[in-house]
Amino acid sequence: xxxxxxxxxxxxxxxxxxxxxxxxxxxxxxxxxxxxxxxxxxxxxxxxxxxxxxxxxxxxxxxxxxxxxxxxxxxxxxxxxxxxxxxxxxxxxxxxxxxxxxxxxxxxxxxxxxxxxxxxxxxxxxxxxxxxxxxxxxxxxxxxxxxxxxxxxxxxxxxxxxxxxxxxxxxxxxxxx
Length: 177
What we know:
alpha+beta; disordered N terminus
């Protein structure tokens, strides 16, 4: 019995240690919000939890949109009884590639004309090519969105991808103190 208890204790320690070891640095990148505020990730987001939501195609954008309402209500509009307790940076980041890179300023202007103004601070148009960021974060498929929750020190503590599910959202929410 003692041997089993020791083994379980060691396994629990390894699991806790494993969670620490899996905290990943977010690659640095620069962008401008739709309201023209400069954001440097991770430097500008230190001290707060930060949710980064990347989409690199219209298919990815469709799945990303399934996250908009719950993320908006919980972290941006802060509706609901407990939602005011959360202070989380949220950035939706379109990833421009190929011909779309040249059209970035036009697309940014169209966004500003059509999107509700309270979303402007949460849309981040990156100044640099995000290929390096995508590679380092293993964002291998352009047809799905990727979500990364950073802790207050700018480390990735949760990641998921694809369309919204209650299970994914609950896992993300549990990581925020």
